[in-house]
Amino acid sequence: MPPIAELTELIVFVFLASAVVIGALGVVLLPNIVYAAFLLGGVFLAVAGLYLMLNASFIAAAQVLIYVGAVNVLILFAIMLVNKKEAMAASPGTGLRRILSSGVCVGLLILLLRVAFTTPWALPGPAPIGEDAVIRLGEHFFSDYLLPFELASVLLLMAMIGAIVLARRDVFSTDVGTGEAVDQALIEKARSPLLVGKNINQKSLETNP
Amino acid sequence: MNTSFLVPLEAYLTVAALLFCIGVWGLINSRNAVRVLMSIELMLNGVNINLMAFSSYLDGYEIRGQVYAIFVITVAAAEAAVGLAILLSLYRNRDTVDMEQFNLLRW
Fold first, then answer.
1. Model ipTM value
2. Helices vs strands, H then E, count in chain A
3. % of chain A with per-residue pLDDT over 90
């Protein structure tokens, strides 16, 4: 392997890794949530680049399609839907909690790094199969990982239906027998906070057409 | 196709550990509920980098790590959809996304 290729690989890795870490810090620390969401998309793209360096082009494509194309867009839509400028009231003990959680996270990081650097990994492993990985993935999915593969489809269906049921607004439909309007209001009526009054449900029933 | 492995395995593990710890910190310290969900996605991505690194360095022929990574991506997508739906429903109830205000179950 010529040195120029090695140098390129190193440069690409350092660039992607720093993009991942700095982007993740930005996601967590930036005060503006919209900037954080777009940075999250950048982090996902950089992680997809790392996957490409690890001989996994199919997973890299899936990462771009699912994370950047679906999850990040979903998060942006959620930000738009709940976009309310509110000054969050200061809660007591925030500084102490930050210090404590930082200590816990640094300790966890040290533990993980110690495991990573002291374990004698069985290197070098078998040579990577490169672009044949897609064929091997298909073989896995339809032989020894068939049951999890089928369960994943059920899980996705449940998530889809659950998301629709949870996020929809009230549906006004008519009773099949009487032809009258059926109140399908859940507790979530019209911006009324929970548990402020006792007759909140009756009030929402009266105002309902 | 990359067979030389100039970058050591530990470098990938370090990046993954950093990403996971940043996600944990954000999960604990975020006031905005959307940012909590974003932190969870960061943690899942850190785990995925670990799986892919092991799959490529130690299990290059069977690539079981990639299979697991696909399942993790699937579950993460389902989690994001349901989590954001719960968040919207919660926002309609409480009219806020401040995590400190969701204290109905506080002991």
1. 0.92
2. 8, 2
3. 54
Pick the residue of B73, B94, B102, B103 with the most A CBs within 10 A to test the interface with A by mutation. Answer: B73
Check: CB of residue A170 under 8 Å from CB of residue A185: yes
Percentage of chain B exceeding pLDDT 90? 62
d(CA B59, CA A122): 10
How long, in residues, is chain B? 107
CB of A77 closer than 8 Å to CB of B81: no
pLDDT bucket at A174, cuts 50 / 70 / 90: low
Alpha-carbon distance A123 to B10, whole Å? 11
Testing the interface with B: which of A4, A7, A20 to mutate, by most B Cβ within 10 A?
A20
- Residue B95: exposure state from Cβ atoms within 10 A (0-12, 13-18, ≥19): middle
Q: Is A175 a residue whose pLDDT tops 80?
A: no
